[in-house]
Every structure is written in structure tokens, then in C-alpha cells.
Amino acid sequence: MGKAIGVDIGGGSIRASLFDESGKELNSKLSPTPEDLNNDKFLKILKDTIRPLASEGQGIGVGSPGPLDNENGLLLSSANMKGLKNLPLKEELKKEFSLPVWYENDANCAALGEAYFGLYKDTESQLILTLGTGVGGGFVQRGVLFSGYLGNGIEIGHTTSVIGGAICGCGVRGCVESYFSTRGFLRRYSEKTNTHLNNAEEFFQLVRNKDQIAEEILHFGTLALAHAVRGAVHLLNPEAVVFVGGITKSYDLFGKTLESEIRSTIFPVLNDRLKIGAGGNLSGALGAASLVFSKEKV
Ligand SMILES: [Zn+2]
């Protein structure tokens, strides 16, 4: 049975794990990353984190927040690790460990992990949306990730749901992420009530308590998300749409509306076959390791 190393680069830490083909984690190592990073310091920590696992893996898959250049294996820059710039991540790891290395953004890795090990792993194709601080996405067909040119495809969070709508973190108005994401919910709530909420849990607790403004924001956000998904379903014709990420913990509060709005607005022929649901929240490291399993199958 093949084994793969998955590396999840987050804002404050790097996690490397060894998995078997069933997705079972056999070993792992976690290293915190300091604030004052530069390329050399970061690479040393990264290599030290992977090293204890390297002898057993048949390849290394790496996921990090974008933007990145997956053709050339470069981490271009990082919002959370400001000292990093044009880091030749793939080349450095290949040289160090003499193993094949694949590198994708973390949303794409999450999508691939869900497609391989998640709710609808037996379907032909999956559109996966990561609902969290923002909205990420990925599309996997026959076990292969669609990454787009240089690896920044399926940025569904920045597709427009409301023309001329609320300003998004990307600087443009009306992105679905402005209406259905932790950032979006908190901003909309603060606009309407001048109340600052700290996280999605607080927002969803208000919904559970029947706070009318929170309910309205969630309802409108759900419709905005449904219409972004509608557009993507017509473009991609996936067999399954799967929602993952922290916000899916509250799927009971919006899932029914979301699913029925998607189903009632897509072509009937697509609706007949489409599966929709909330997946599990698999680890980022497993998603990254799925890059190895995916390439092994090609
Ligand atoms: Zn945007």
C-alpha cells in the first residue's frame, strides 16, 4: 500500500503527516512558525518538519494559502507570513528529499481530500466549497483536480452574486464571500446593528436565538451562495456539490434553504442527478497528501 506525506502550511504552523491510501494518519509532526520569517528560515523549518517522515513516503504534497505558482512550485507571497516572497518551495523539497513534490493552494487541497476521502468519494466529479473566513472552492473530476492556469482556479468566493453589492476583501463589490462567509456575516451584522461580533459561532448563536437581523443576513447570504453554486453547476456539471469548512457546523440552520434554492434554479436535467451535502472536515494535511495519491493514479 502506498504512503504519502501531506504538508499543511498555515499562518502560525506547519504540519506534516504520513498517510496510507485509506487516509489513515500514521505519523505526524507539527512546527510553529515564528513571526519574523524569511525564505531561508522558513525553508529550514519546513524541511525539519518533513524529515522524520521522509523515508516512508512515496511523494510529498504541499498545501498553503495562495497566491502561488503551481507550475513552477513557487509560494509567491503570503498574507500571514509577510517575510516570504517567491519561495521556490517545490525545487527545494525535491532536492532535499529526492521525492516527487506537488504543490497547490490549500482550498484546492481541501477539495481533493474531500473528493478522495469524503462524503461523495464514490462519485465521478465533485465541486467542493470551503465555507470559512472566506469562501474557497475546488473541482475534482475522476480523481484529478482542476487547478486552472498556475493553480488559482475555482475562486468561487469571488464570483459576483450581487451586482454593485457590498465591498469584498478583494476590493470588488458583490462577491458571494461578502454575503456568505465569517467575514461577510460579521461585516453585514456590524453595518446593520453597530455590534461587533468576534466569530461565526456568535453569529450563528444569534440566529439560533431568532435574532431577526442575523436571520435576515443568513437568509440573504444563503440565497447569494445558492446563486454562485447555480452558476458553477451550469459551468461544470459536477455529480456532487459538497460544502466543507467551519461554517458547515451550522449547516442545520441554512442547508435546507441552500439546497432547495440550488435545486429549484438549475436545469432539471442537472438537478435529477445532482447530489448535494455537507462533508466532513478532513485535515489540511490529508488534503495535501491527496495530491500524491491523485498523481500516482494518473
Ligand atoms: Zn471578492
Structure description:
The protein folds into two domains: 3-109 and 283-297, Nucleotidyltransferase, domain 5 (2-Layer Sandwich), CATH 3.30.420; 122-278, ATPase, nucleotide binding domain (Nucleotidyltransferase, domain 5, 2-Layer Sandwich), CATH 3.30.420.40. It is 38% helix and 23% strand. It is built from nine helices and 13 strands. The protein has helices at residues 39-50, 89-97, 106-117, 182-193, 200-208, 212-236, 251-265, 268-273, 284-297, and strands at residues 3-9, 13-20, 25-32, 60-64, 68-69, 74-77, 85-87, 101-105, 125-131, 135-141, 144-146, 240-244, 275-278. α3 (106-117) packs across α9 (284-297), α4 (182-193) runs antiparallel to α6 and α5 packs across α6. The longest helix is centred in the C-terminal third of the chain and has 25 residues, at 212-236. The protein is globular. The mean pLDDT is 93. Bound molecules: zinc ion. Zinc ion (ZN) binds next to loops. InterPro entries: ATPase_NBD (IPR043129), ROK (IPR000600). This is ROK family protein. Belongs to the ROK (NagC/XylR) family.
